[in-house]
Amino acid sequence: MSLELIHLDKTYISKEDGKEVEALKDIDIRIEEGEFVSLIGPSGCGKTTLLRIISGLEKPSGGKILIDSQDVDEPWLQVGLVFQEFALFPWRTVRENIEFGLEMKGISPEERGKKAAEYVSWFGLDDFGNRYPKELSGGMKQRVAIARTLINDPKIILMDEPFGALDSQTRLSQEEFLLNLWDRTKKTILFVTHNVDEALSLSQKVIVFSRRPGTVKKIFFIALDYPRDVNSDVFNGVRREILEYLTEEGM
Amino acid sequence: MPSGYLLHNHCLQSLYRVFAGFFIAALLAIPLGIIMGWSRSLRESVTPLIEVLRPVPPLAWIPLAILWFGIGFKSSVFIIFLGCFFPIILSTISGVLSIDSILIDASKTLGARKKEIFLKVLTPGSLPSILTGLRIGLGIGWMTLVAAEFTGVRSGYGLGYMIMTARDIQRPDEVIAGMAIIGLIGYSLDLLLRGIESRLLIWR
Lengths: 251, 204
Description:
The complex is a heterodimer of chains A (251) and B (204).
Chain A: E1 3-13, E2 20-31, E3 36-40, H1 47-54, E4 62-67, E5 70-71, E6 79-82, H2 94-104, H3 109-122, H4 138-150, E7 156-160, H5 168-185, E8 188-193, H6 196-202, E9 205-209, E10 216-221, H7 233-248
Parallel strand pairs in A: 3-8, 3-9, 6-7, 7-8
Antiparallel strand pairs in A: 1-2, 1-4, 4-5, 9-10
Helix pairs in contact in A: 2-3, 2-4
Chain B: H1 7-38, H2 40-53, H3 62-69, H4 73-97, H5 101-109, H6 114-143, H7 145-151, H8 159-168, H9 172-200
Helix pairs in contact in B: 1-2, 1-4, 1-6, 1-8, 3-4, 4-6, 4-7, 6-9, 7-8, 8-9
């Protein structure tokens, strides 16, 4: 499914001084079906706010969100959000966490259990289905979080710095895992990161955001094959260009 | 002590009263506490009332309890209820407030609506705090037993009643025995709830 953001604005009233803060300004983005798009920008540029708006957790102050050219009332049916902090329910086992969305849809426990078991093994969590989140490593927690989102079969997956809390080794293997998953499911992915290499090795399109209020500063198209060689010349060229943009924005 | 008034009858009668008061308190305080934890406006409007009522000792409620419910079972249960209610509701509220809001957001993006958020996120999320509140509530409820049985003497049973009667007939040994048993049962109840707590909270 394609995702269109049309003249999206977001202002909110600051809790500290009661003043209006412009978080996002005139965001115009179109993401095609099956595309892997990264969003990169200085911290506090409204990236997270944008994902929250697309997923329906917050309302935009102006503008529109279209999915397959349609207005959306209940975005959770089509959009899944993966949080940086994993946001697993600590009182549920891995399997119960993964099942959560199916439970919300009123699917029977047997069917839920069957489907969750499939996801548990697909995500390499076989020995951990009955464990609680506190017993898992960061990388595993994030896999559970992705599985929990994916089991709902959203057409668009939003990811908010999902690997930001992981060490670099784990991060690389998670990125590889994500690319495989994308290849296999053909989902549309909007991936927020502050890591240029991550954006470059994963996505077909990199959107650079400005400082607050967040606006689209530049869009880079990365037409390189996967898996990508992070040390190739093309890669270096684009990386330098993106970094220049980000430096301008004081990142 | 009249013959036939056996110790285990006193204990059972007291436990019955305390559990009745305790269960009514839990039944009201937990849902109300979760709703208050969730709704800021409700919390802000009801909390002052709770904070004013809370410091009033259960003993001070006895005249009203007798007026409203007469002398007997209902009055004593009401007094125990008051002892249990406040710690349970306050712990429940703070339990809901301690839930990371990102879990509520996550549940929403997975399709949870109000009812599911209440049952599947707020309730389990505040469970550790609720259980602490239940333990404190039961402890206080048990402590108000003697006061409660000032009003609930018709049946002639109950540890509080036993102590009062022993005082009237000048039997300090029975008074002390009654006190010791209240202490022991109170301790056992706490152990029981601690056991339940660690069972339910293995995920922590």
